[in-house]
UniProtKB/TrEMBL annotation:
One GO MF term: efflux transmembrane transporter activity
Record family assignment: Belongs to the membrane fusion protein (MFP) (TC 8.A.1) family.
The Multidrug resistance protein MdtA-like barrel-sandwich hybrid domain, residue ranges: 83-216
The protein's name in its UniProt record: Uncharacterized protein
Region forming the signal peptide: 1-19
UniProt KW keywords: Signal
Amino acid sequence: MRYALFSTMVMMLSLLAFSGCGKDEKAAAAGGQGTAGAQQAAGQQPGGGAAGRRQPTVVVRPVSTRDVVYTIESVGTLEAEEEVRIPARVSGPVTKVSFQEGDPVTPQTVLAEIDPARYALEYARAKAGSELSTAVLHDAQQAYDQRSSLRKQDPGWVSDEELRRYETALERGKADLSRATTDLNLAQKNLDDAKVRPPFAGVINAKLVSTGEYVRPEGVIGTIANVRTLKLRFTVPEVDAGHIEVGQAVKFSVRAHPDREFMASIFFVSNMADPSTRKVEVKARCDNPEGLLKPGFFTAVQLQAGLHHAAVMAPEEAIIPTEVGFVTYVVEQGIARQRKVEIGLRDQGEVEILKGLQPGESLVVRGGHVISNGMPVQTTDKL
C-alpha cells in the first residue's frame, strides 16, 4: 500500500513539472516574437544592434575652384579738390556784385567790379604818358642820328660835347619810355583787377561782399570750390595697408545715387597709422563731370586688393568651428570623414580653403553638425 501510494505521488509531480516547462517555452516563444515585431516596427533588423540603426542623410556637393577677389571695404568722405578764397586785387568801392552762393562760374565770369571808372581813367592817363614818351624818344633818336652822321662826314661840324649831349637825351628818352610802359602795364593790370574773376572753374561756396562796400587788396569777397574733381578720403586697417598702392582703382557709392557706382584713383597712401585707431589714411581722386557728387557726401568704398586664381572654395555653412579649429566633413564610400581645414578669404557666402580639401571631393554642405567621424551616412544633392 505504502509503495503504491508513493508511486502515485511521484507520477503526479512529474506531470506537474512537465506542464510548467511547456508554459515557460510558450511564454519565451511569445516574448521572442514580440521583440522581433518591435524591431521591425522601429525599422531595424531583428537582433540588429548598432548595424540596424537608421543612417542620417546629409547634403553634399563636389568641392570646386574659382578665382576669388580680395576686397577691402571702408567708408569715406568726399572733399573738394580745391577750395580757395577769392581776393580783391585793388582798393575801392564795390560798384557791382554779380554772383550768389551756389553759382557755377568759370575764370571768365566777372563776379564783382571795384571802381572801374577810376581805373579806366588811370589807364588812359598811363597810355597818354606812354605815347608822349614814345614821341620824345623818337625825336631824340632822330637828333642823335643826324649829329652822328654829320660827325662822320666832318668831325669839325659836331663837337664831342654836343654829340654826348644828344646821346644823353636819347638815353633819357629811352628811360622815360620804359617807365611809361611800366605805368601803362600797371594801369592795365589794375583795370583788369577791377573786375574780380575766379581763379578756376567751380561753384561759389560763400558770398562775402555787397554793393557799395569798400574793399582793400587781399580782402576776401567770396570762396569757390572746384567740384569737377573731388577727393575721396577713407581709412583702412593697418593689416590691409600693404595691399594698397598709388594708382589703384577704387569703386564707391553714395546714398544720394544708390543705383550708381563711381570710380576714383588712389594718389596718396599715408606712411603712418593713426595711433588711436591703427588705421591708415588713403586719398583718391575722382572726376565729377555731371556734378552728381558733392563735397561732404558719405561714401561706401570697395577696393580690390588682390586676386587668387583657382582657389578651393566651400560654402560657409560647411565650415564648423571647434575647439581644435575649423573642420568640415567629406563622404568617402558612404562614410563621413572629418577634415581640419585652414580658411582664407570670404567671398559671396563662400570661404577659401587654404589646406584640408581637394577639388572634386564630396563635401558635406548641410548636416555636418549631426554626424561624426567614421559614421555611415546617406547622401543627397538636393538642399
